[in-house]
């Protein structure tokens, strides 16, 4: 029998399917404090992780692992580690912004019924990996694609997600038993929500604004500040 090419026709999405994809993109939010106590069912979690696992990865290296955390004592330890780092972060801002910073809710570690730590195994695939030969960070970028897939899938499932980045990696590695050689890429809080901000929360609260897209598009080469 002749070998098949493995190719399939790239049919365009129906208009309703296309609109659903864009709706997920444009209504995705970084959730902090709107989590409901209802647990995320195992079958839903599996769908979310399957979506993450189907993210593009350079050289098909698939460098990610997913650590799921539901234990309240473990989440309490992680929240305490966040609190210490967050106090340090507040002091890094100009004095006139510190009160605004402290007023922001920047994590939902204790409130979200499910936390997920996404890691990158930088040694997976060996010493020479297709597509990583000249940019050694492609494994990290690939793992971030898995985070984005997970985020959009969560939005479709009616699950809110927040990315917590204010940690010392050493604290998280100690609490979760992560080997030193493994890179932590994202610590995520997930849970059902019944409300989402219409615009990003940091925009609503005046911390920052969305930049105009036209100012970010250059044609044929760099046109910004040097």
Automatic annotation (TrEMBL):
<keyword id="KW-0521">NADP</keyword>
<dbReference type="InterPro" id="IPR050627">
    <property type="entry name" value="Nitroreductase/BluB"/>
</dbReference>
<comment type="subunit">
    <text>Homooctamer.</text>
</comment>
<dbReference type="GO" id="GO:0016705">
    <property type="term" value="F:oxidoreductase activity, acting on paired donors, with incorporation or reduction of molecular oxygen"/>
</dbReference>
<keyword id="KW-0520">NAD</keyword>
<comment type="similarity">
    <text>Belongs to the BluB family.</text>
</comment>
<protein>
    <recommendedName>
        <fullName>5,6-dimethylbenzimidazole synthase</fullName>
        <ecNumber>1.13.11.79</ecNumber>
    </recommendedName>
</protein>
<dbReference type="InterPro" id="IPR012825">
    <property type="entry name" value="BluB"/>
</dbReference>
<dbReference type="Pfam" id="PF00881">
    <property type="entry name" value="Nitroreductase"/>
</dbReference>
<dbReference type="GO" id="GO:0102919">
    <property type="term" value="F:5,6-dimethylbenzimidazole synthase activity"/>
</dbReference>
<keyword id="KW-0547">Nucleotide-binding</keyword>
<dbReference type="GO" id="GO:0000166">
    <property type="term" value="F:nucleotide binding"/>
</dbReference>
<dbReference type="GO" id="GO:0009236">
    <property type="term" value="P:cobalamin biosynthetic process"/>
</dbReference>
<dbReference type="InterPro" id="IPR000415">
    <property type="entry name" value="Nitroreductase-like"/>
</dbReference>
<keyword id="KW-0560">Oxidoreductase</keyword>
<dbReference type="InterPro" id="IPR029479">
    <property type="entry name" value="Nitroreductase"/>
</dbReference>
<keyword id="KW-0285">Flavoprotein</keyword>
<feature type="domain" description="Nitroreductase">
    <location>
        <begin position="26"/>
        <end position="192"/>
    </location>
</feature>
<keyword id="KW-0169">Cobalamin biosynthesis</keyword>
<keyword id="KW-0288">FMN</keyword>
């Amino acid at each position: 029998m002749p070998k098949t090419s493995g190719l399939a026709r790239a049919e365009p999405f129906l208009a309703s399917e296309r609109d659903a994809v864009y709706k997920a993109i444009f209504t995705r939010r970084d959730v902090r404090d709107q989590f409901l106590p209802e647990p995320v069912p195992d079958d839903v979690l599996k769908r979310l992780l399957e979506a993450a696992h189907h993210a593009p990865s350079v050289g098909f290296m698939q460098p990610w692992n997913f650590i799921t955390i539901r234990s309240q004592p473990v989440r309490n330890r992680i929240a305490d580690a966040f609190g210490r780092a967050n106090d340090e972060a507040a002091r890094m801002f100009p004095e006139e912004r510190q009160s605004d910073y402290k007023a922001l809710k920047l994590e939902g570690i204790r409130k979200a019924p499910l936390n997920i730590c996404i890691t990158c195994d930088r040694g997976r695939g060996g010493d020479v990996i297709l597509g990583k030969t000249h940019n050694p960070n492609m494994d990290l970028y690939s793992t971030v694609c898995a985070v984005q897939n997970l985020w959009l899938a969560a939005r479709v499932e009616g699950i809110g997600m927040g990315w917590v980045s204010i940690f010392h990696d050493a604290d998280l590695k100690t609490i979760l038993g992560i080997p030193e050689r493994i890179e932590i890429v994202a610590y995520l809080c997930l849970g059902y929500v019944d409300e989402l901000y219409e615009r990003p929360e940091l925009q609503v609260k005046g911390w920052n604004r969305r930049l105009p897209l036209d100012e970010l598009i250059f044609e044929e080469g760099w046109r910004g500040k040097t």
